[in-house]
Structure formats: structure tokens, C-alpha cells
User: Fold this.
Amino acid sequence: MRLARRLWLHGALLPALATLGALAVAGQLFRADLERSLDRALLAQAAVESVSLFDGPGQKVHLHMAVSPLVEQVRPFAPQGYLYQSDGRLVMRYPPVSEGAPEPPRRVPGTREGAPTLTTEVSPDGSRWREVMVNVRSPQGEWYGLRLLASLGQVDRSVDSFFRMAFSLTAVMGGALLIVQTLLARRLSRRLAAIARNLERLREGDFTLSPAEGPGTDEIGQVGAALREATARVRGAREAQERLIANAAHELRTPLALMRTSLDLALRRERSAEVLRVALQDARTEVDRLAVLADSLLDMATAGRGAWDWKKGDLALLLTQAVEGARAAAEQRGLLIHLDAPAGVEAPFDAGSLRQAVDNLLGNALKFAPKGGDIHVRLSEEAGRLRVSVRDTGPGIPLAEHDAVFEPFHRVAGAEPSPGAGLGLAIVREVARRHGGRAYVAPGTAPGAELVLELPVVAPGDERASG
Assistant:
């Protein structure tokens, strides 16, 4: 079922039908209430008439409604009154009828006082009447029957008027709801169609366009915003993947070309054993270079994937172990590593990946710090986030390249060539992202550079932080 029809059904038709059903029930309850009110009025009138039938001169029987000074004003809605003798003969009635009119049937009163009886009668013309019959005993001991009749026509007219007005208002309301739901359906259909078109493009691999900003902040607007964000992330990931593949191909091409050249020269003509040994050593060097690049690419691929062992551990202890592991390489270069990490700083993290990220930060500092320089490793907590910073006294990183240094295979412009595949800081950024944090270059640290790995105190996802 299409959205427009569904909104018409659930937003207009069903409410209108439910309203009609409720009005039908309300009309019957309204009719019953009016009839109860009429019964009470009849009983009240019967009570008044029954106690005053014989209070006239000489205790002559009479009906008070016939002699009321307001008889003309109440005639349109006053009940009809009949008084019968013990033999059922009509004594008097109100309103009077013209001579020659047929007499009503006889009603023989009972011979004892009792509760009045209420019944509904239908006349030959189809009109309905409510009747109350009361037995009244005269002072002389004779029994009379007092019969009061009230037309239910006014009740029927009131209920019919209620139904006409109610059904008319329901029709107007249903029409208004239909118009509103039609406009709403068209608007929602346009918004959902835009999202559907974008999803179709995403399914076909087209990440160039994002859904336009929606007009509202409702659930559909939130879906559109989430889709825009997801599209931007996928587009960025795809662009990063394409750059990574292109850079990896470039990095692979160089050692392969050198190996091929060396082997071609060795095979072109007869060579001495020493020359062949040199060629094989050159090829082995390039193979080692390819192995390092392959390992780095594997680390890069697995840094953001796989099941991590999230546990709450001592981050200061992890930094101490990483620093101790780097001291031998630092001493060979005449460098000193200073660690400032307060004990007992606990946080949930994956020890293996985080240790790799810290080792990469230390390795980057060891490559660029001058001989006799210092490397400062510091752990601090600010605004509910943990900061692991590694600062060296090297040439520093230009401000324009603060973000680019975390891209795979990026080389700082003007920097001396250094060993490595150029993926260390990219792995640091991926590990930080997986932990719900970030990696960045701290500004204003010249001379040298300060790289920061920032982590949240609480891991992303309680289920992963438990343990």
C-alpha cells in the first residue's frame, strides 16, 4: 500500500469511521438520558396531581394542569392527563377534546396503592408516547386511575438534530483530514523519494552526491541527516582507500623495479660469482623492504577491524613498557626519553593495538629527533579524555601538513628520507578512531613536534568496555 493511501486510511477514513461509531453510541446514550429526564418529569407531575386530585371545593376531583394560569404557555409541551374511575370510565382529561371525538379505551385502576408503572406506547400514526399510570384512592375510599402521557417526539427530534449536526461536522472533519493527509502524504513522499534515490545511487556505488537538507527535524529529517553523514563517511573512506591503493602501488613499484633491474643486469651476460652475490644481496634488500611494506599494510588493514580485547587496564603501565622498549634504540642515537605518567590511570582499551600506536609515535620521534636531543612522553587527563603526547626536538611539522601527516605514505615536504613504509602515523590515527578518540599534532610546539593520541575515559560501547 502506498504512503498516500495509508495516510488516507489511517489518518482520515478510520478516524472518521471511529468518530461516526462514537457519535452513534453517544446519540443512543443521549436519547436514553432524555427519556430518563422525561420519566422523572412525568413522575413529578403524577406526584403533584395525585396528592391534589381531591383538594377542590367539596373534595371534588379535578386536574390542576387544566386550571393552571399558565395553561396556554405550557400547552405545547405539557403532558396529557386522564383520570379514570374504578370502573374504567374516563372522568376528565387534559387537554379537552371536541364533542363527538371517540373516547379513549377504558383503564381500570388497581385496588391498592403501588409503584407507578411506566410504559411506551406507539400510536397508529407511528408517534411514540411515554405513559405513567398511578392508582389514587379518594377520601371516600374510591379508587381512581391517573394516567399521564408525554410525547417522545421532542426527544426524537432532539436526537435527530444531534445526529444531523454531528454527522455534518464529522463529514467536514473527514474532508479536512483527507485534505491535510493528502498534502502531508505528498510532502512525505517527496522527502522519502529523495532518500530512496540517494540509496539507489549508493547501491550502485555512486557516492558523489548526498541527499539535500530536509525541511524538518522529524524522524525523516534525522534519517536524511544520518544518510548524509554516512554518505560523506563512505565517500571519504572510498577516497582514502583509493589514495591508499595508489600510494601502495607506487611504493611497491619502486623496489620491484630495482629488483627487476638488478636481476636483468645479472642475467644479461655471464657474471662472476661476486657480481651475482651483490645482485642477490640487492634483491634481498628490496625483498626486506617489500616485507616491511606488506607488514605495515597488514597492520593498517587490521587496525580498524577484527575483534579487539577490550579490558580496563593501567595506561601508565603500558606507556612505561613502551618507553622501556624504545630506550635501546634511543641510546644508540644518543637520545633521552622522559616519561611523565601518573600511576593508577585506568581506562578501557585494547592493549595490543594501543601499544602498537604508542610504539609508532615513539618510532616517529626517534627518526626525526636530532642526536643528543630529548623525547618527552606525557600522560594527562583533560575534560574526561586521556592524552598521550610524544614530543621531540626535531625539525617539526609545518602547520599546513598537521592533518596530512596521518595520511598513508605521506612524507613531510623538505624532510630527509627516512626508513619505513610511511604508515606508522596512519595506524595511530586508525587506532585512536577505533577507541573513540583522535590523533593530531599539537599546535605551537616549535622547535620539534608534539603528536597527541587522545582517548575517552569510557570506551565506545559498554559491552566492549566490560571485562
Summary: The longest strand covers residues 128-137. The chain is about 50% helix and 15% strand.
